[in-house]
Please model this.
Amino acid sequence: MMREFVFETNGARCTVQLEPLGDGEWRIVVAGRERCFRWERRGENEYDLFVENCAERFTVAANGDELLVSKPGASYRLTRVDARSANRTASTGHTGVADPVIRAPMPGKVIKVHCKAGDSVPEQAPILVLEAMKMEFVMTAPRAGVVTELRCHAGERVDIGATLAVLKFDDVSAQE
Model:
């Protein structure tokens, strides 16, 4: 049975269709391009992906509706868009139902904190920088609001899923 997902990355929407074919094989259709693949789990959040007999190693970290997909030399931040958030986009211009809790998408080290509890921040303002897998990931405010809690400091090592900061959004409907 084909499943369809809509993601947003860098302001563009992309529809992804996935269909299990059996024996670990999958069919994927992205932007009209069809491929067959299989994957093998290698560790926590680490997978080998085999597309047409070519292997690539990926790390996938999930944080709510957001996926951070990394491979040597590149990383992609994908936000899943569902029917509810697509409707909100049409009526408000916002994309997705924002989570006021900012969590570590993977284990790493906080290398910089840009704000403190009580600070007002605009949408997409940097909250902190997390270093993981020799890359820096800027964790941003999904909506304008106030930082109510900051649960980490520069130099601290954090685990995947750790709560790093909590915000209270100016637009209360964004926290539904």
